[in-house]
Amino acid sequence: MSELKLKVIELQTSETYSLRIAVLRNNTPTSDPKYAEDSKPGTIHLGIYDADKNLIGTSTWVLNPWQNDINAQAIQLRGMAVAKNLQGTGLGALLLSAGVIHAEKLKAKYIWAKARDSALNFYLRHDFAAVGDGFTEGITQMPHHLVVRELKI
Ligand SMILES: CC(C)(COP(=O)(O)OP(=O)(O)OC[C@H]1O[C@@H](n2cnc3c(N)ncnc32)[C@H](O)[C@@H]1OP(=O)(O)O)[C@@H](O)C(=O)NCCC(=O)NCCS
After folding, report:
1. Is the C-beta atom of 23 inside 6 A of ligand 1?
2. 76, 87, 95, 124: which to mutate for ligand 1, most atoms within 8 A of CB?
3. How many DSSP H helices and E strands does the chain contain?
4. Ligand 1: does its nearest atom lie under 6 Å from the Cβ of 123?
């Protein structure tokens, strides 16, 4: 597989489900891949297919205020998942770059996420800062931190 040919494209909501289930619902109390924000106006999904038309990366970008500056335009990143056998090969970084471009087009000041502690370093390496104490997220029951990246607008 040549990574140079991989493109980030916009997905329909239903296209995200299988990868969300495989990567984000594994070892959690639920197998439901749907988010309430999927149908929120302004939500988009960005993903990557491989040459065999398998979805190998997905991410969801939701218009949602950042708690510490609620009047500024902000985007919440949800459902960030890369196929297990391809994690660590740069696909997450590719999705994130496309999401940052999307956020910049909307003149967003922040991108924020509830980051799993197991993935926290991914966000910290990409200019996000962890904010506040860790918490157990309700759906997955996994330890998380809020992370935020301020964009130059
Ligand atoms: C987290 C995730 C989306 C990152 O995507 P990825 O394609 O694996 O990440 P990349 O290959 O683009 O890595 C980018 C950088 O982050 C680091 N990184 C990636 N995943 C990491 C992790 N879980 N922990 C620590 N660092 C990580 C890489 O070392 C790399 O750093 P470098 O560029 O300095 O070498 C992916 O690993 C994944 O799907 N994990 C399981 C599901 C998950 O936790 N999703 C996030 C929910 S908040």
Report:
1. yes
2. 87
3. 3, 7
4. no
Q: Distance between CA 135 and CA 142 in Å, rounded?
A: 8
For the CA of 114, the nearest atom of ligand 1 = 48
**Are 146 and 115 contacting, i.e. CB atoms less than 8 angstroms apart?**
yes
Walk along the chain (153 residues) and give the pLDDT tens digit of each residue. Answer: 544 579 999 999 999 999 999 999 998 999 999 999 999 999 999 999 999 999 999 999 999 999 999 999 999 999 999 999 999 999 999 999 999 999 999 999 999 999 999 999 999 999 999 999 999 999 999 999 999 999 987
Our count of domains for the chain comes to: 1
Distance (Å, rounded) from C-alpha 61 to C-alpha 102? 9
91 within ligand 1 shell (Cβ under 6 A):
yes
- Which residue segment(s) compose the domain that 51 sits in? 3-150
Return the CA Rg of the chain.
Answer: 15
Residues 6 or more apart whose CB falls under 8 angstroms from that of 127 comprise 149
CATH number at residue 86: 3.40.630.30
| C-alpha to C-alpha distance for 69 and 47, rounded to whole angstroms | 29
Please indicate, yes or no, whether the overall pTM of this predicted structure exceeds 0.90.
Answer: yes
